[in-house]
Amino acid sequence: MKLSAVRVEIYDSHRNRIIKHLVFWLLGAVFMAYLSLAQAEQETPIPINIPSQSLGMALEQLKRETGIPLVFKSEQTAGKNSSAVKGNMSPRQALDALLIGTDLIHKEDNGNIRFHARSTETNLSGKEQPTTLPELLIKQVRETSYITEQSSTATRILVNQR
Fold it and tell me: What value does the mean pLDDT of the chain take?
């Protein structure tokens, strides 16, 4: 192979690597723009009118009307009612209003909004209150130590013999 052919191969390889990096960064920028657009869409106030009904039906209606990605189990909403929500608000604000008076909270997980039971008690001002755990009695403690019972060391000294 001639030197000019090697130069052309190196140039082509370098150019292909640059193109791959540019495509990677361009796709990343497009993806980030899509995510910010989707988030802005969820924050934009829209007219919402959901009557007081069972919580499951209210969440389904909110999901249908706004496209917000709600994921919940029927057991989580069984026996719970939502309050009526009416007015111009973001889908997240409407969701918060629907959950008032229930023991459910929502968290975003991989682009979906999932529901969990409230893990700590809250008072009317919304501040978390400490949870008192039941008493725990420890009957026996096993003693462990980090002191070795036996150890030995050695050192090697190099000596030049002449």
Answer: 77
